[in-house]
Design goal:
Chain B: This is Tubulin epsilon chain. Chain B: InterPro entries: Epsilon_tubulin, Tub_FtsZ_C, Tubulin, Tubulin/FtsZ_2-layer-sand-dom, Tubulin/FtsZ_GTPase_sf, Tubulin_C, Tubulin_CS, Tubulin_FtsZ_GTPase. Chain B: Keywords: Cytoplasm, Cytoskeleton, GTP-binding, Microtubule, Nucleotide-binding. Chain B: Belongs to the tubulin family. Chain B: It holds the Pfam family Tubulin_C. The complex is a heterodimer of chains A (453) and B (475). Chain A is of the alpha/beta class. Chain A is built from 15 helices and twelve strands. In chain A, the strands form two sheets. In chain A, strands 5-4-1-6-7-8-9-12-10-11 form a ten-stranded mixed β-sheet, with helices on both faces. A two-stranded antiparallel ribbon of chain A has the order 2-3. The longest helix of chain A has 25 residues. Chain A starts with a strand and ends with a helix. In chain B, β6, α5 and β7 form a beta-alpha-beta unit. The longest helix of chain B is centred in the first third of the chain and has 25 residues. Chain B has 475 residues and is α/β, with parallel strands linked by helices. In chain B, α5 runs parallel beside α6 and α11 crosses α12. Classes of the chains: A alpha/beta (453), B alpha/beta (475).
């Protein structure tokens, strides 16, 4: 089954390019620590999911590119074409002449209805190219105007038009300090709308990825390109084909469905995060060796202590003794808090993967009480290695780890809202104080639900 | 991509405008080596086949034939505009986009606003509509004028109302030169205060600039070059004051150097909208992020490094120094000290080979020494444009919505009151039809109300920042 990707705004398009590039390069990576036949099956599965074929044989990404002004899409198209290895469809873009001005209301209430037909038509064409549709992957940022506002609008329309297809939104959380001044307003409006219309929200925070670039990848002058490439690596390790129950040569057919089934048992809890280990510069990779035991131990502690990377993990944080209730309800202010999960999915790729022992992840103390670990935890193991990593492990979790960042955004937005600053820019395009209040209410509810796990 | 139209009004407005067009042409020539008419150039220029008579000559793609500025030149005297039309830029301007008269406004806002306003309203509308028609997607009007005279001040602000009524969806960015204390036009306080009311009510965003600051900046550049220590050498092709690039010539025409700073400001303001980068900032984003309340739309600007404003080859200093300088009072284009006042919002527009980590490092470093209003503690808007200014590796434009504009306005009000108390020169204004004393009193109240807003914000400066109680959700 195939996934149709919708890339929205500058962020969505810049990341989308890196994702397809990473997926393609990985699937054509020679070797892969497995047989040639295995490699071919992997490639074919990856292709089915993400690329369609054109007459001259160059794979075409199953993607629709949307932006309200032209510069970024032109760049994205030419970067892809230049690689010569894959490209975007010539007619898969929708552009306008003037951007959304970082205004969620403009993206949602003006651009959305105005261009709904054209955008939905483009998506329809892409869907028609699929033999069978697993669902939609929508890449967008929360801070700006197009990705956030138009992204929310498009997701809603996808829900209306393709009610049986799944939707996962890849949302980029902006840096805590300043990319966009009204980013907190745009964020709460986006999140509250997506909570209603999307099936799962896969979140990446710029601050976290930036730290990975600085500490793990040792990049001195970090650019957005570097950040996007780390992100693409993490997404690739989740979305590339994995074995189904039958094992070798048989890959899972419904990536989105499988992810949702494992990770989103309840519609009140939709926020997912990704952790990946090991993550390092390719130069260092050649000199490093890992054991599954070591990788999994770090990954588990990253989960428990809410660390986003394998450096600086707090090993003091422990799960509560099993059988006993967690040590009091989570308060957002506590520094070192144990991160309770609803569901976890570990994806292992590489050498001797079948020997990897994930027992520690099945500890009921990690999870909330209303799900048995047998339902809350799953593992997918695949022999075929990911990129140049002999062993790599990804953890997708639905846990409390996003509560603190969410709470911060809501807090800052609330302070600004109390002063009524910038509201005239939103009310000008039909987003009223009521709409803000609705968003605040919904998100406070989400925070409370996660805190009470 | 969108287009912008520049409306230059009065002597000052036209002189600055002329410098702007010169710099814009040179910037695009440096970036666009193949002379293809692309979207970046089209933001400020039309491509015209001059062999075609009449209006049909516009060419939208392909090689550049003849570039015409998207500009409307207005002056009630002929001297300055004529000089432009005889100078090296004469082919850049469309002769049909001019409005001139011969008598001038006599440094009288009322003459500019009321007399010439009503006289030329139709003609102005016609020229504006024409320039709008030539645009695929018009986003912004840039109005350049001075506040202290008669034409720029009076007719320039009359225009704002016309633009607001005729093109309500198009942003109005106004670059206003405020009179310094030693201004030689006696009535400049009257003109400025009357113009301020119009700016309060009809501009989307104002960039106030004063001559004294520009002069100080030029002096600093001269000092840097003359000190010899830095091994300064004259650069043949960088963007600066005069097209021959020789600094000696600059001393003959001091205003040229100062005008070029303002021209650089406009160029850098629009660079992220015209050129590519990893984090773009369009003009509508500037307004969205920097104007928290409609009346508080005055932005203090600073350009660093200063040597990007000079034809000199000073070896680039540390990148971080550029950021520090942007907040120093010596680099602001008006007399203001943002560091010791309250920030409502701040935008950093970087050009050149600067990445997000450089930007973040500097914001973290400078944040503790700056005071932001309680509801906008992280009030930063940033952009990264890959194309540096010509002949240099990087530059930074900082735009601050900061209470440090208050002293300029208060000062203006003081000067106004000194004159008005004595009714000095008032009869020149009152004898104009449509002018009454109430025009003056309303104008000064409008300014006082604005100052009061800034005062209220300043009062919150030393208060501790508390988080407000949040919504309580019943579980």
């Amino acid at each position: 089954m195939s996934i149709v990707t919708v890339q929205l705004g500058q962020c969505g398009n810049q990341i989308g390019f890196e994702v397809f590039d990473a997926l393609f390069n990985d699937s054509h990576c020679p070797g892969g620590l497995c047989s040639k036949r295995e490699n071919e099956a992997y490639q074919a599965s990856c292709k089915e999911r993400f690329f369609s074929e054109e007459e001259n044989g160059v794979p075409v990404a199953r993607a629709v590119l949307v932006d309200m002004e032209r510069k970024v899409i032109s760049q994205t198209l030419s970067k892809a074409a230049r690689s010569g290895r894959w490209k975007y469809g010539q007619h898969s873009c929708f552009c306008q002449k003037q951007g959304s001005g970082n205004n969620w209301a403009y993206g949602y209430s003006v651009h959305g209805p105005r261009h709904k037909e054209s955008i939905m038509n483009l998506i329809q064409k892409e869907v028609e190219k699929c033999d069978s549709l697993s669902g939609f992957f929508i890449i967008m940022s929360m801070a700006g105007g197009t990705g956030s506002g138009l992204g929310a609008f498009v997701t809603q329309n996808l829900q209306d038009q393709y009610s049986s297809a799944l939707k996962m939104n890849q949302i980029i959380w902006p840096y805590g300090t300043g990319e966009v001044i009204v980013q907190n307003y745009n964020s709460i409006l986006t999140l509250s709308h997506l909570y209603r219309s999307s099936d799962a929200l896969l979140v990446h925070e710029n601050d976290a990825v930036h730290k990975i670039c600085a500490k793990l990848m040792n990049i001195k002058q970090i650019s957005f390109c570097d950040i996007n490439q780390v992100l693409a690596h993490q997404l690739g390790s989740v979305f590339q084909p994995t074995y189904s129950r039958e094992g070798s040569f048989h890959y899972r057919r419904n990536p989105l469905g499988d992810l949702m089934e494992n990770l989103v048992p309840h519609p009140e809890f939709k926020m997912l995060g990704v952790r990946n280990i090991p993550q390092m510069s390719e130069n260092s990779l050649a000199y490093s060796t890992f054991t599954w035991a070591g990788l999994l131990k770090h990954l588990r502690q990253m989960l428990i202590s809410n660390a986003k990377m394998e450096e600086g993990i707090d090993w003091q944080v422990r799960p509560p003794l099993s059988g006993l209730p967690p040590l009091g309800k989570m308060s957002v202010n506590k520094e070192t808090h144990f991160n309770t999960s609803i569901a976890n999915l570990v994806i292992l790729r590489g050498k001797d993967v079948h020997s990897a022992d994930v027992g520690a992840f099945k500890d009921p103390a990690l999870y909330t009480s209303w799900l048995e670990p047998v339902h809350a935890f799953n593992v997918w193991k695949t022999q075929r290695a990911f990129r140049k990593y002999e062993k790599s492990a990804a953890l997708v979790s639905n846990s409390q780890s996003l509560v603190k960042p969410l709470d911060m955004i809501v807090g800052k937005a609330w302070n600004m809202f109390a002063s009524r600053a910038y509201l005239h820019q939103y009310t000008k395009f039909g987003i009223e104080e009521e709409d803000f209040l609705d968003s605040f209410t919904l998100l406070e509810q989400v925070i409370a639900s996660y805190c009470n796990l | 991509m969108t287009q912008s139209v520049v409306v230059q009004v009065g002597q000052c407005g036209n002189q600055i405008g002329c410098c702007f067009w010169d710099l814009a042409l040179r910037e695009h020539a440096a970036v666009n080596k193949k002379a293809i008419y692309d979207e970046a150039i089209s933001s400020f220029f039309r491509n015209v086949d001059t062999r075609v008579v009449g209006d049909g000559g516009s060419i939208s793609k392909g090689k550049i034939c003849s570039l015409k500025a998207r500009a409307v030149l207005i002056d009630m005297e002929e001297g300055v505009v004529n000089e432009i039309l005889q100078g090296p830029l004469r082919d850049v301007f469309d002769s049909k986009q001019l409005i001139t008269d011969i008598s001038g406004s006599g440094n009288n806002w009322a003459v500019g606003h009321k007399v010439f306003g009503s006289l030329y309203q139709e003609k102005i509308l016609e020229k504006l509509r024409k320039s709008a028609e030539h645009c695929d997607c018009l986003q912004c009007f840039f109005i350049i004028h001075s506040m202290g005279g008669g034409t720029g001040s009076g007719l320039g602000t009359f225009l704002l109302k016309v633009l607001e009524d005729e093109f309500p969806e198009v942003y109005r960015f106004v670059t206003s030169i405020y009179p310094s204390g030693e201004d030689d036009v006696i009535t400049s306080p009257y003109n400025s205060i009357l113009a301020m009311k119009e700016l309060n009510e009809h501009a989307d965003c104002v960039l106030p600039i004063d001559n004294q600051s520009l002069f100080d900046i030029i002096s600093k550049i001269d000092l840097m070059m003359n000190s010899g220590k830095l091994g300064a050498a004259i650069k043949p092709k960088s963007l600066v004051t005069s097209s021959t690039g020789v600094f000696k010539k600059r001393q003959e025409k001091p205003f040229d150097a100062m005008n070029n700073i303002v021209a650089n400001l406009l160029l850098n303001l629009t660079s992220s909208a015209r050129f590519e980068g990893s984090l773009n900032m369009d003009l509508n984003e500037i307004i969205m992020n920097l104007v928290p309340f409609p009346q508080l739309h005055y932005l203090v600007s600073s350009l660093t490094p200063l040597y990007t404003l000079a034809d000199v080859n000073i070896p680039p200093r540390r990148l971080d120094q550029m950021f520090s300088d942007a907040f120093s009072k010596d680099h602001q284009l008006i007399r203001a000290d943002p560091k010791h006042s309250l920030y409502l919002a701040c935008a950093l527009m970087v050009r050149g080979n600067v990445q997000i980590s450089d930007l973040r490092r500097n914001i973290e470093r400078l944040k503790p020494s700056l005071q932001f209003v309680s509801w906008n503690q992280e009030g930063w808007k940033t952009s990264l444009c890959s194309v540096p200014p010509v002949g240099h590796s990087h530059s930074l434009l900082a735009l601050a919505n900061n209470t440090c504009v208050k002293p300029t306005f208060i000062d203006l009000r003081e000067r106004f009151i000194r004159l008005y108390k004595k009714k000095a020169h008032l009869h020149h204004y009152l004898q104009i039809e449509g002018m009454e004393e109430s025009c003056f009193t309303e104008a000064v109240s409008s300014l006082s109300a604005l100052v009061q807003e800034y005062n209220q914000l300043d009062a919150t400066k030393s208060m501790p920042v508390e988080d407000l109680p949040r919504l309580n959700i019943a579980m």
